[in-house]
Amino acid sequence: MNLSLITACYNSASTLGETLESVRFQRDVSLEYLLIDGGSSDGTCALIQREASRQLTVVSRWLSEPDDGIYDALNKGIHLATGDVVGFLHADDVFAHECVLQRVAACFEDPSVTACYGDLEYVWRNDSASVARYWRAGEFDVGRLRRGWMPPHPTLYVRRAWYEIHGGFDVSYKISADYDLVLRLLSSRPEKVIYLPEVLVRMRTGGLSNGSLGNILRKSAEDYRALRTNQIGGWGALVWKNLSKLGQFVSR
């Protein structure tokens, strides 16, 4: 089972090193690792070049060029990917342990599995050892989508064949293209979706969606649009989606 892992980055020199190290320590997996840079000017490209020049580099391919935001970059990665399964690791995130990709690959040994996902820890941006929120995803049920449920997108792995049929991220969304894609995937009645009940990714707080009040409002508007476009629900689902986050601040 071959996995393609995609990291989109832009001026990420302060965190990308940890991400690369996290990928380097993954055990016993056939991995294609793609780095898609948006034309960074802060030393990100030099960092990638150093990693790519290592004798045993984890980087399979990388490119740096202007793009139309993170979702455009991720689509470029999907287009370049050749693995059986595609996943994403953002440039300020790390895997929770060294066997994450090994366990993901094992899920897809069953040919009926379309996707798998797990749990996520949010850690403080300036203290990655301290957990701010814990996102326990729980088992997938299509009915939960109407109650605002979604799996943590950074933990989601999907067969590349699904992208070939249904397409990648809709770049008309600037913040919620991942939510739209998840709704599109899970409402398409995939044959089998597996939940791994463990933390797969540790994600730093302070991302695009909650970086400002304006972004929070824009995200809500885009989430509502995604719900309506995918015929999942409306305001009720949106309210439940936001309320469900409150439990993530309670210790597990």
UniProtKB/TrEMBL annotation:
<keyword id="KW-0808">Transferase</keyword>
<dbReference type="InterPro" id="IPR001173">
    <property type="entry name" value="Glyco_trans_2-like"/>
</dbReference>
<dbReference type="Pfam" id="PF00535">
    <property type="entry name" value="Glycos_transf_2"/>
</dbReference>
<feature type="domain" description="Glycosyltransferase 2-like">
    <location>
        <begin position="4"/>
        <end position="117"/>
    </location>
</feature>
<protein>
    <submittedName>
        <fullName>Glycosyltransferase</fullName>
    </submittedName>
</protein>
<dbReference type="InterPro" id="IPR029044">
    <property type="entry name" value="Nucleotide-diphossugar_trans"/>
</dbReference>
<dbReference type="GO" id="GO:0016758">
    <property type="term" value="F:hexosyltransferase activity"/>
</dbReference>
